[in-house]
UniProtKB/TrEMBL annotation:
Name used for this protein in its record: Putative O-methyltransferase YrrM
PROSITE patterns: SAM_OMT_I
GO molecular function: O-methyltransferase activity; S-adenosylmethionine-dependent methyltransferase activity
Methyltransferase keyword on record: yes
Domain of life: Bacteria
UniProt keyword list: Methyltransferase, S-adenosyl-L-methionine, Transferase
């Protein structure tokens, strides 16, 4: 089937291009100890996020959705020693597993996990007048993605890069009458960005190990 071909090609590309050490492999496995196992980004997406951090020279990264810390580790490792990742998750089990993984991966000093509803944590960062972030990765519950984007804009500077995962959802993004809150969230996100002159954006569809999906890339003007 087409999906088998997409997965086989993804595996071939990952085998040749993406080096995953023991700490990263263990991190992926350890998502079994969280409330939502197995929904981390693929190895290729992890490497992509790391490259994006390096290309942009990001020093401060904000992440919505930690899970076991897989994407956080890719981004933290791509930063200089003075870099910082703040990652937000509602699941205390995930936060505990992630902290263990950050130690094993050698990035514990650079990564801060904040436990609680991500919108509340983001609002706390705004209240604290946190230094703006250079790159934001939004990968938590999809229904609140528009709110996460709004909060991210408050925590950004001109040039901040925002990546939002899972915006295609096997094409379900086209279902305008969908009763699925995740689809409604992504469609509301699209309308928000369409009407917002503060952002330049695009989105790319992807196929591979995780089926047919896509991610959105935006830059704060
Ligand atoms: N970025 C991670 C990676 O690639 O390794 C994967 C994150 S996973 C797709 C989504 C995470 O969002 C889960 O760990 C879940 O606990 C968290 N989450 C769900 N609802 C949330 C909320 N309201 N606030 C914060 N985190 C939430």
């Amino acid at each position: 089937t087409a999906q088998e071909d997409f997965a086989a090609v993804d595996t071939y590309l990952i085998d040749h291009l993406v080096h995953e050490d023991q700490a990263l492999a263990d991190t992926r496995r350890s998502s079994a100890e969280t409330a939502t196992p197995g929904i981390d980004v693929t190895q290729s997406m992890g490497a992509f996020l790391g490259l994006l951090v390096q290309i942009t020279g990001a020093r401060r990264v904000l992440e919505f959705g930690t899970l076991a810390g897989y994407s956080s580790i890719w981004m933290a490792r791509a930063m200089d020693d003075d870099g910082a990742v703040v990652t937000l998750d509602i699941d205390p089990a995930a936060a505990q597993v992630a902290r263990r993984n950050f130690h094993a991966a050698g990035v514990a000093e650079r990564v801060q996990v904040r436990v609680g509803p991500a919108l509340e944590s983001a609002e706390a960062l705004i209240q604290e007048q946190a230094e703006p972030f250079d790159l934001v990765f939004i990968d938590a519950d999809k229904v609140k993605t528009p709110h996460y984007l709004e909060a991210s804009l408050e925590l950004s500077h001109p040039g901040t890069v925002i990546v939002i995962d899972n915006v295609v959802r096997s094409g379900a993004v086209l279902e305008q009458d969908s009763t699925d809150p995740d689809i409604q969230g992504i469609r509301a996100l699209m309308e928000l960005i369409q009407a917002d002159e503060r952002l330049s954006a695009t989105a790319l569809q992807t196929v591979g190990l995780k089926g047919w999906d896509g991610f959105l890339l935006a830059r704060v003007n």
